[in-house]
């Protein structure tokens, strides 16, 4: 397969590359390319650079600050950002809660929240999963009881990515316990500085504080922070998850990591020859590359359906994208062999100039491998996605 672009699209790619070459700080590029950990300031710094250019929300309608780019131009932008190793524009605000606000919120809510999301004035996190409600999200138990002009929220959310940095959290809460579980859920926007909100860290296998538990103890939330109608939150949640799952495919990032894998495999020797020239290993790398190209073609088909929200195809992208990401990290670790076993948290945090044993390429890979075990689970586990495909596409 060969992707053919028009002369206009090639010219657009040149424009994007020129912007990235001149505006991407070298320090941020080094961190991303070397799999080092990014700080809150790193994410915000890059978001504001892109926002100043007017490119922070390519998927948004122009009236809200979007770019007006075609689906192919948006794909080229994401592809070039990944190639250049930019920090990601975090999805929680721009790609997840913003589409819900545009589709279902009041005009006052749109006027307040959307400009702040666009400029990264607010850092958002997601309040969906609970200890007893992950893939079975409709079983959530966090409650919101209305008292006058406020809701009183009590409960717990978990796996809250980067919640320790967040200004706002979009939450699914139960507002009616007498109806079918999907029908009693509402969608609330909660200020993380509200009294009664407590964030506790969850330290992962890679020794990073990326996720959290969030507790709500009699948290008072204005009714004005309800998005859409009370007890219609399940509809909004599914709409949001479609946008999240499409983004999880992360084709551009996987293309960059495929190039990194090939670099590793050329440096590692097997019987005096680069590992990448070993027929068995080369065949596995080629297999992933073919699957990645097929995924890219599928992504282009899905995003080219202008005017339509993500459908069950988003589940297909989520499954295949997450599997490819995991395969790439597995092959990286296998390419290094025992050298990939240790990892150096101090180096990952930027506290040391070189990684364990002076191997800067290998130092982050065990942590990187551990972290990417999550991709087949978050956004709805791949098993759940297969159920969605069975029901909505195959009709079974």
Q: Can you lay out the helices and strands and say which pair or pack?
A:
Layout (H helix, E strand, L loop, with lengths): L6 H17 L2 H8 L6 H14 L17 H14 L6 H14 L2 H12 L5 E4 L15 E5 L2 E8 L10 E7 L10 E7 L5 E7 L5 E14 L3 E2 L5 H16 L2 H17 L1 E2 L2 E2 L4 H25 L9 H24 L8 H4 L16 H7 L10 H11 L4
Parallel strand pairs: 1-4
Antiparallel strand pairs: 2-3, 3-7, 4-5, 5-8, 6-7, 9-10
Strand-pairing-aware structural class: alpha+beta
In N-to-C order, the SSE pattern is: HHHHHHEEEEEEEEHHEEHHHHH
By DSSP, the count of extended strands is 10
Number of helices: 13
Rounded radius of gyration (Å): 22 Å
Shape: globular
- Our measurement of the CA-to-CA distance between the termini, rounded to an integer number of angstroms, reads 32 Å
Order of strands across the main sheet: 1-4-5-8
Brief summary:
The protein has 13 helices and 10 strands. With 396 residues, the chain is α+β, with helices and mostly antiparallel strands.
Overview features:
single chain; 396 residues; alpha+beta; four-stranded mixed β-sheet; four-stranded antiparallel β-sheet; 13 helices; 15% strand
Written account of the structure:
It is built from 13 helices and 10 strands. The chain is an alpha+beta fold and 396 residues long. Strands 1-4-5-8 form a 4-stranded mixed sheet. The protein has a 4-stranded antiparallel sheet with strand order 2-3-7-6, with no helix packed on it. Strands 9-10 form a two-stranded antiparallel sheet. A hairpin with a 5-residue loop joins strand 6 and strand 7 (209-222). Helix 8 (251-267) packs antiparallel against helix 9 (279-303) and helix 9 (279-303) packs antiparallel against helix 10 (313-336).
């Amino acid at each position: 397969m060969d992707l053919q672009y028009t002369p206009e699209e090639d010219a657009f790619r040149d424009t994007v590359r020129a912007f990235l070459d001149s505006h991407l700080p070298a320090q941020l590029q080094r961190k991303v390319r070397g799999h080092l950990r990014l700080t809150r300031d790193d994410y915000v710094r890059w978001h504001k650079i892109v926002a100043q250019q007017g490119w922070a929300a390519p998927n948004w309608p122009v009236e809200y600050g979007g770019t007006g780019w075609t689906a192919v131009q948006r794909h080229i932008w994401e592809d070039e950002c990944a190639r250049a190793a930019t920090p990601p524009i975090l999805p929680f605000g721009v790609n997840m809660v913003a589409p819900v606000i545009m589709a279902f919120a009041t005009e006052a809510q749109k006027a307040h929240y959307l400009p702040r999301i666009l400029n990264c004035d607010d850092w958002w996190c997601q309040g969906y999963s609970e200890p007893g409600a992950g893939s079975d999200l409709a079983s959530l138990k966090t409650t919101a009881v209305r008292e006058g002009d406020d809701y009183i929220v009590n409960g717990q959310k978990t796996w809250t990515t980067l919640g320790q940095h967040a200004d706002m959290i979009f939450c699914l809460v139960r507002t009616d316990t007498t109806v079918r579980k999907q029908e009693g859920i509402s969608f609330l926007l909660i200020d993380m500085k509200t009294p009664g909100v407590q964030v506790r860290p969850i330290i992962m296998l890679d020794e990073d504080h990326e996720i959290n538990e969030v507790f709500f103890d009699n948290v008072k939330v204005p009714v004005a922070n309800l998005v859409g109608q009370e007890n219609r939150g399940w509809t909004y949640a599914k709409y949001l998850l479609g946008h999240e799952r499409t983004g999880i495919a992360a084709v551009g990032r996987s293309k960059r990591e495929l190039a990194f894998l090939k670099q590793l495999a050329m440096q590692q020797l097997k019987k005096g020859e680069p590992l990448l020239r070993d027929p068995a290993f080369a065949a596995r790398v080629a297999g992933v590359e073919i699957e990645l190209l097929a995924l890219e073609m599928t992504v282009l088909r899905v995003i080219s359906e202008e005017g339509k929200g993500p459908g069950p195809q988003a589940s297909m992208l989520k499954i295949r994208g997450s599997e490819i990401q995991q395969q790439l990290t597995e092959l990286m670790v296998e390419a290094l062999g025992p050298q990939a076993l240790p990892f150096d948290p101090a180096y990952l945090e930027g506290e040391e100039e070189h990684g364990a044993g002076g191997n800067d390429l290998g130092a982050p890979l065990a942590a990187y491998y551990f972290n990417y075990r999550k991709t087949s689970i978050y956004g709805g586990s791949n098993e759940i996605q297969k159920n969605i495909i069975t029901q909505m596409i195959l009709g079974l």
